Q: What sequence folds into this?
């Protein structure tokens, strides 16, 4: 077994037994990236001559890859946008600080949709990443680079960010594990904001246990983030390997409708059977307002995004189109610096917040968001876990949806509502399509019950072992 | 002609709250530091950074709200005000839109009636809300081009908005003076207009005197002193009156005051006004403030100028006007109070502080705080006048010397032999001489021209080098002339 194939847990064990293996692991991974990333294009920036970890702790000597919207001291951080080219932040995001303090080191920065606007990794200014299972297909998005790196054994583990499915959908497309924690569970300080009330950083890993190990490091209150919750953090690894006897699995009737790919439906329904065989019970639940989730999301998220992206104006940092006056500098910088999807969302967001439209769009959007939250509250009274597909389809081809934004937006139909409701959700592999492309299963739990997700996901993973199947690169 | 119009004025005052650190980060608020030295990822608006509210700012904001008798919002919520400008690093200002920390209060101003008495007028306070300041553009003196200093970015501000209750430039001036006084008593701001810790915009409109409806309002900006506000409003009232008289319409617009030209000029029209696209700041979670917390802050408020004025009237028997002047500047009120506590005649002390001491300090360009004559020293001087050791006339010569040398009044009077002559026998001799030397005046006094005696008193004073007690001389002369 090559060292780059190790899970996070195996790498931890290797290095704790023999610290000198740290550089061997790094070299193995770096060689792999040098050889294969030109095909996958998971990374936008990686350092083969890393000096390694500084701190000592739970992740000593472990290389972690980061989505390029996580601010990293001394590393160019661009959100895969031309407008941030050359921006080298003078500080670390809280998650980066925590990783370093636990002994991990930053291995590289992963490709993404520009400013996390997309579900395919195709809106990146660096060009698309490729799905390691079939290079003609997208890895999903927006954390497509992180997911492709983990799936292709180009990373031990990675961090992504999830605003409407951006960790879970690429995890599903690449056949890896992706967790979107409860809103407020992980500090957003240093995550370049897209939709501030929706964004969460989370792990993308080879196994459920790896996800739990990373969450032990990432979770917790941060005094620099007022939206981070002061809720105790359990030992997430303690949920690994527990059985699911008596666990109530809720199946929302709204999930299994037109638009859901038959192969995906089949894989998800089989997973329900697996859970029943493991002793879980199944109940039907309802999320009656789910049909509005995509619409609400494309009001709330773009409104926040239009404001969050105002700062990229050529004044302080990043790209600037030199002009003779301030107004032209603003116009030219933003015109040349942002890609088409970013412009589309900035315009949408600016529109819904404008005088005369605010009440009809933004305010109404917030009200429906509350209803969606209540749906989850009610459903999660009946069930411990809500089960469904992560994405309505298996991965699609590069270029297939780039000219059809609406169909691209619908790729997040199952993931968006967890962000609107603030609840935690995890995507785990649950099978393969006839084209040998991964299919993901999504589990959702009550706020701050990531432990329940780990318990259910690890039981399922142990029973099915989908993670053992690897793409051939 | 302009009398047919009534001005309607509302003021928006931005006050820099006096905190050690900025509103959403730990950077220092110190004024005048090296450009961009008091900055961090948060106040530079660097990508990924997040704001965290400085609780001290909220406390000071609530203090002002309570002092202005506002209702304090029990839910604290912030909003984003979006616009592009290089001094605004995030392209939005974190402010409060629909839930200001305090609202619906009032501030009393004192209007002097023709008979000199004071009439109170309550000016409504619409709201006072918290927000962050922007940076500062530097166009000169750096290198070529324009530069931004973000030291001021994120300094806490309280914007206090009045109702359109003011009816003249004088009332506006009075409002600002009283507001500043309250802020100084609360010790929440330096209130320094030159350093920008207090800024004021005015909304001015005029209407026919019996109109119920307001006229079209014009916002005026860029005044850097209370006097400038007064002048700009006066100018604007005149400009609008002339425009209406000429049959023109007033345009709703923002105008800039030009101090050197003494005029206002159009800055932007209503059509060019920004749509700020306010929406709740998602990075700051709204939170509640309990009644107990508000009560605790209320209990911590110091005595405010209005209450102090009433107390001065009662405790020291001062006139309303004297009390008002003394309390209007906190250091002045403090000075008086220490002085009066030395058990001297308070009214006399008040007169000496207001007319003589402040006048002398003013000509010397020395502030009250830097005066060599401390309140106790002034009390010493007042005491000498009170117990007839020296006359008021002599005291007027003693005070400047006290200011120059820092010596006490007693010392100066002793050293220079200025002790008042109260020796009746000596004074009688002098009076006798003066009567003999001025037969004509004596005749006038005897024939009923009572005021002519003043000349004789003056002559006695002259002979005694001003050291005689004028009251005593008067008595002696009257007695001699009536016999």
A:
């Amino acid at each position: 077994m090559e060292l780059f194939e190790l899970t996070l847990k195996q790498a931890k064990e290797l290095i704790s037994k023999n610290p000198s293996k740290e550089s061997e692991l790094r070299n193995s991974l770096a060689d792999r990236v040098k050889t294969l990333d030109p095909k996958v294009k998971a990374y936008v920036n990686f350092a083969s001559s890393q000096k390694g970890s500084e701190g000592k702790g739970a992740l000593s000597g472990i290389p972690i890859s980061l989505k390029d919207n996580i601010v990293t001291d001394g590393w160019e951080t661009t959100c895969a946008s031309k407008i941030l080219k050359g921006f080298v932040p003078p500080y670390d995001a809280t998650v980066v600080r925590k990783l370093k303090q636990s002994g991990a080191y930053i291995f590289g920065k992963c490709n993404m949709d520009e400013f996390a606007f997309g579900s395919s990794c195709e809106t990146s200014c660096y060009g698309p990443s490729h799905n390691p299972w079939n290079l003609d297909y997208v890895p999903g998005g927006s954390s497509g680079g992180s997911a492709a790196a983990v799936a292709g054994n180009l990373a031990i583990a990675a961090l992504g960010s999830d605003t409407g499915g951006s960790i879970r959908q690429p995890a599903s497309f690449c056949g890896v594990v992706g967790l979107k924690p409860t809103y407020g569970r992980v500090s957003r300080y240093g995550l370049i904001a897209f939709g501030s009330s929706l964004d969460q950083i989370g792990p993308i890993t080879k196994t459920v246990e790896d996800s739990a190990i990373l969450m032990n490091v990432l979770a917790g209150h941060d005094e620099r983030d007022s939206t981070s919750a002061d809720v105790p953090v359990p030992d997430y690894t303690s949920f690994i390997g527990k059985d699911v006897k008596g666990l109530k699995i809720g199946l929302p009737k709204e999930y299994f409708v037109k638009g859901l790919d038959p192969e995906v439906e089949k894989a998800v329904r089989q997973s329900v059977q697996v859970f029943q065989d493991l002793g879980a019970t199944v109940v039907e639940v309802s999320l009656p307002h789910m049909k509005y989730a995509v619409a609400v999301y494309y009001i709330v998220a773009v409104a926040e995004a239009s404001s969050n992206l105002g700062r990229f104006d050529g004044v302080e940092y990043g790209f600037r189109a030199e002009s003779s006056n301030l107004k032209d500098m603003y116009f030219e910088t933003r015109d040349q610096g942002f890609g088409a999807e970013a412009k589309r969302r900035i315009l949408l967001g600016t529109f819904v917040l404008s005088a005369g439209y605010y009440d009809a769009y933004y305010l109404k959007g917030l009200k429906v968001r509350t209803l969606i939250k209540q749906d989850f509250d009610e459903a999660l009274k009946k069930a411990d876990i809500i089960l469904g597909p992560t994405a309505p389809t298996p991965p699609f081809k590069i270029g297939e949806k780039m000219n059809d934004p609406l169909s691209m937006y619908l790729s997040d139909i199952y993931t968006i509502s967890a962000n609107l409701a603030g609840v935690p959700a995890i995507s785990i592999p649950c099978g393969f399509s006839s084209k040998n492309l991964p299919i993901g299963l999504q589990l959702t739990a009550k706020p701050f019950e990531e432990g329940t997700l780990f318990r259910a996901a690890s039981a399922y993973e142990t029973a099915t072992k989908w993670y053992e199947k690897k793409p051939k690169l | 002609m302009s009398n047919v119009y009534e001005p309607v004025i509302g003021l928006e005052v931005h006050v820099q709250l006096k905190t050690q650190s900025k509103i959403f980060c730990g950077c220092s608020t110190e004024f005048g530091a090296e450009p961009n030295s008091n900055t961090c990822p948060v106040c530079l608006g660097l990508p990924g950074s997040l704001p965290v509210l400085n609780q001290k700012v909220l406390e000071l904001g609530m203090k002002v709200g309570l002092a202005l008798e506002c209702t304090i919002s029990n839910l604290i919520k912030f909003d984003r005000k979006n616009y592009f400008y290089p001094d605004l690093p995030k392209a939005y200002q974190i402010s409060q839109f629909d839930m200001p920390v305090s609202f619906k209060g009032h501030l009393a101003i004192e209007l002097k009636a023709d008979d000199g008495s004071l009439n109170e007028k309550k000016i409504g306070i619409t709201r006072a809300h918290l927000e962050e300041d922007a940076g500062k553009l530097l166009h000169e003196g750096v290198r070529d081009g324009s530069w931004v200093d973000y030291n001021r970015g994120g300094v806490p501000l309280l914007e206090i908005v009045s109702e359109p209750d003011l009816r003249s430039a004088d009332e506006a001036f009075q409002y600002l003076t009283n507001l500043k006084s309250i802020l100084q008593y609360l010790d929440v701001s330096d209130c320094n207009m030159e350093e920008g810790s207090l800024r004021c915009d005015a909304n001015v409109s005029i209407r026919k005197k019996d109109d119920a409806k307001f006229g079209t309002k014009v916002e005026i900006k860029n005044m850097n002193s209370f006097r400038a506000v007064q002048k700009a409003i006066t100018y604007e009232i005149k400009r609008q009156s002339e425009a209406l008289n000429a049959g023109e319409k007033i345009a709703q617009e923002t105008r800039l005051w030009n101090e050197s030209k003494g005029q206002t000029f159009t800055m932007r029209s209503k059509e060019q006004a920004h749509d700020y696209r306010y929406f709740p700041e998602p990075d700051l979670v709204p939170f509640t403030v309990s009644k107990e917390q508000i009560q605790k802050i209320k209990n911590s408020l110091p005595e405010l100028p209005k209450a102090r004025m009433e107390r001065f009237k009662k405790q020291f028997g001062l006139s309303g006007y004297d009390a008002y002047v003394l309390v209007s500047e906190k250091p002045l009120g403090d000075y008086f109070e220490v002085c009066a506590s030395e058990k001297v005649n308070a009214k006399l002390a008040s007169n000496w502080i207001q007319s003589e001491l402040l006048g002398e300090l003013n000509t010397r360009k020395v502030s009250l705080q830097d005066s060599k004559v401390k309140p106790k020293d002034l009390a010493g001087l007042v005491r000498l006048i009170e117990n007839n050791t020296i006359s008021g006339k002599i005291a007027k010569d003693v005070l400047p010397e006290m200011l120059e040398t820092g010596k006490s009044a007693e010392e100066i009077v002793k050293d220079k032999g200025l002790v008042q002559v109260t020796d009746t026998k000596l004074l009688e001799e002098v009076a006798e001489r003066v009567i003999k030397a001025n037969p004509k005046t004596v005749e006038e006094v005897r024939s009923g021209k009572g005021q002519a005696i003043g000349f004789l008193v003056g002559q006695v004073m002259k002979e005694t080098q001003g050291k005689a007690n004028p009251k005593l001389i008067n008595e002696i002369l009257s007695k001699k002339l009536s016999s």
